[in-house]
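Issue: copy button drops trailing tokens. Both records pasted manually instead:
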Amino acid sequence: MRHALARIFERGELHDPALHEAPLTVTEVRVSPDLKRATAYVMPLAGRNAAEIMAGLKRGAGHLRRLVAQEVKLRVAPQISFALDQSFDEASRIDSLLRREDVARDLGAGDEHPAENDNDKDDGDGA
């Protein structure tokens, strides 16, 4: 379903002004166990115009459902909702935390000390 949505966006099959030539990445689609609902996580290029694009996707959800149903053969075409993918922001936040001096110092401290318990090493005697 993710690939089908990506192809639909790439072909520009939605005619909403907010989505016209708006580069979108479909990062994930989560489908409910009964296959009746799906949440597509999307990210506009560089996060630009995210609010407008999300509104356009909401307006075009019914049309997208029909287009997806034509590409993906399922017994029931799921109702599609869209959510802004926050994973890029979260990854950036984690990266900035890991680059902080105090965190780097704490992470590097473990590399300087050899294993405290040398009894765990294999001495080759098979015991």
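Record 2 (pasted manually too):
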Amino acid sequence: MSPQTTQKTMHYYVLNLSYIRPLAEVEAVLDAHSRYIESGYQRGAFLLSGRKDPWTGGVIFAQAASLEDLQRLIAEDPFLKAQVATYEIIAFRPTRASADLTAVVAQVPYVQDQAIK
């Protein structure tokens, strides 16, 4: 028998960060937050990120094997530790993408009865 490989199903999330403290307090931990974001990219968890416009928070497009894994990662964010921002986690199943993101859609199992028509 040959060894069997298993591929983890990735789940996708939009993380909506909202600042709950004045911008001066946010900026005080911005360098630490930037290092945290870079760590998320190095781990393969973050795919896109950036500031909202106007700058009232940020948005991260993330992937994780489970919601619990994602929540553990989010708990490391210096913004949360300093209580300057909150996270809204929005789970979704990508079903279409531009050519640049087709690899993401190809990894997500499509379930007909859950499709939006």
